[in-house]
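Example 338.
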Amino acid sequence: MSIYTLAIESSCDETSAAILQDGRKVLANVISSQVPIHRKFGGVVPEIASRHHIEQVIPVVDKALTDAGLTLDEIDHIGVTYGPGLVGALLVGVAAAKGLAFAANKPLIGVHHMEGHIFANFLSNPSLEPPFLSLVVSGGHTMLVVLKDYETFEVLGQTRDDAAGEAFDKIARVMGYSYPGGPAIDALAAKGNPQAIAFPRALAEKGNLEFSFSGLKSAVLNYINSTKMKGESIPEADLAASFQQAIIDVLVDKTMEAAYMSGQKVITVAGGVSANQGLQKALEKRAHKEGLIFYKPGKILSTDNAAMIGCRAYYMAQAGKFSDLSLNAKPALALGLG
Ligand code: KG4
Ligand code: ZN
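Predicted structure in complex with zinc ion:
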């Protein structure tokens, strides 16, 4: 008999509900994006995000059940993101999941958002099994994690300052592109020369698995300001390509170093920045050269969605990791505690 998971995600600016069959088959993955609403403010406004989650959370759950052709009664358990993220946004999903779990008498599972991102790889790649190394790159996190088995996460290194996605968003904003900036830079970079402008690659010493993007951000801002002061026009495509290449070089080099140091032969990428075409191509190429196997999630599964939360919830249920109705939002939740 199949196990059906209902999952809810509301940690940032997407309200999403998904239904999974036996943890890996996505029957529904409904995403209500608030991106157009936040765009005019240049970033996510927490209060506005919470309000839209409240309006959308039950409709997305209803649509997911309809898409999957199931009733709430037929669901086996309910997974929900409880951190990290915006506290008001998380609270909406957590309250909805608790209400549904209580009303329908279903077990509840609190899921770590970044663990969900890593598990998105299981949905796109049916044959994938742990152990593997994952480069986790999103708007709030940049880290290298070994998933030793379905329940054991080992963080090998993370960023000291900005996350990779944050750097993309900040530079795009200065260049006049709307939030979120990653896709705009990605598209522009494809038309430019990645060697046109020399930008720094921080913490490049061998064996160092930490990241830092604040120096790169300052270098790009200085370049933009000094070019403007000279009265010259900004070579937008070359700037985007050179900035993106500086991020990609660091991410790829450190991922290869981490694979070597941890002895992992399989690497995956996770989080919103994993949708970046330049990054995907570079990781694929280097992995091939080093004799490593590379997996990536599909586009919809790279950025925030509830299907990845459902996948993680399914494996947590297998391990007997359930939450009770005292589950609360944890905006700064550490990895591996889900
Ligand atoms: O994982 P995600 O959807 O939300 C968080 O958990 O943070 O990641 C969002 C981040 C944003 O910073 C966005 O600019 C970035 O992912 N992003 C990209 C691309 N698509 C989304 N960055 C670079 N290239 C892309 N194609
Ligand atoms: Zn995310």
